[in-house]
Specification:
Elements: E1 8-9, E2 18-20, E3 26-28, H1 34-39, E4 47-48, E5 63-64, E6 72-79, H2 87-105, E7 114-119, H3 123-127, E8 132-139, E9 152-153, H4 165-168, E10 172-178, E11 183-189, E12 198-205, H5 218-235, E13 246-252, H6 256-260, E14 265-272
Antiparallel strand pairs: 1-9, 2-3, 4-5, 4-6, 6-8, 7-8, 10-11, 10-12, 12-14, 13-14
Length: 283
């Protein structure tokens, strides 16, 4: 990615972030600055150096030029507004942030390998009277799986860079697994001109009461089926050839931790039953 070495940082809730230098020596990132936390209000278009937690309650520390190595780009800020700790308020904040991410990027964010996160002031900031929430954008290294959060890619250019979206574009995928039982073993992004059996078709938001669609229990398969029906309604006539049989591979925009924190977004991939195609399924 230009002059920057692409770095991956695992998103781990509740653990202090630590990294390594290229020589393998541990590096401890500095904690939030109380003076900065109390005096600074975040601004849209600002980039932050570190991805501390998910969700990122670090406030506005680590501000850096978007041309330097960073992990977070702020798409929007809602000043003077705190998010009540209830599912409906959190869902509304995510919905607002997704809409503003589209406006910030000039296209649907979920068609790129990006994540939208809702961030709030840290404990010290809240004690000092900070009232705002942030809409953050992060580039992911790969699609999230059901077993872990997606890794975040460090960047050295703003997301608005004209040539940027191409390498992040999500469209065609080769999926390995059992389409009828909705169990996925492998998934590789691929050029649509190459043979493939899945394609991104829609985006939906799961109901607040729905559990995470896990692969580790029997309930997960039923949840994936229900999400597939929701995806089918959202995708409409995306598949041009009505003769094709297909199901939906549903991919939450974050893993189980993000889901529990209110991120119920789901990407919907048409998953062909027993065949590959070349080219887009939507013509």
């Amino acid at each position: 990615m230009g002059r920057m070495v692409r770095r991956l940082v695992a998103m781990v809730m509740g653990l202090a972030v630590a990294g390594c230098t290229q020589s393998g020596s541990p590096v401890e990132f500095p904690g939030p600055s109380p003076s900065l936390a109390r005096l600074t209000t975040p601004a849209a278009g600002t980039c932050l150096e570190h991805d501390w937690f998910y969700p990122s309650y670090q406030g506005n520390t680590g501000v850096i030029s978007c041309d330097d190595d960073h992990y977070i780009e702020i798409a929007a800020v809602h000043a003077g507004r705190a998010i009540p700790d209830d599912p409906a308020a959190i869902a509304a904040a995510f919905a607002q942030c997704r809409q503003e991410a589209d406006g910030y990027l000039g296209e649907a964010w979920w068609r790129q390998r990006l994540a939208v996160r809702v961030s709030t002031p840290g404990e010290e900031e809240r004690a000092a009277g900070a009232r705002w929430y942030r809409c953050d954008l992060l580039e992911q290294a790969q699609l999230p799986t059901y077993r872990q959060e997606a890794l975040v890619v460090g960047r050295d250019a703003p997301l608005s860079t004209p040539a940027g979206p191409d390498h992040r574009r999500l469209q065609c995928v080769q999926v390995g697994g059992d389409v009828r039982s909705l169990i996925v073993s492998t998934a590789h992004e691929i050029e649509c001109a190459q043979p493939h059996n899945a394609e991104l078709a829609a985006f939906v938001v799961a109901p607040a009461v729905m559990q995470f669609p896990s692969y580790t229990d029997l309930a997960g398969r039923e949840i994936r089926r229900q999400l597939g029906e929701q995806c089918r309604a959202a995708a409409g006539d995306f598949v041009s050839d009505r003769r094709l049989a297909y199901h939906f591979w549903v991919v939450p925009t974050s893993g189980a931790t993000g889901w529990s924190e209110g991120d119920r977004g789901v990407r919907c991939f048409v998953w062909l039953d027993g065949r590959n195609v070349t080219g887009s399924l939507h013509r």
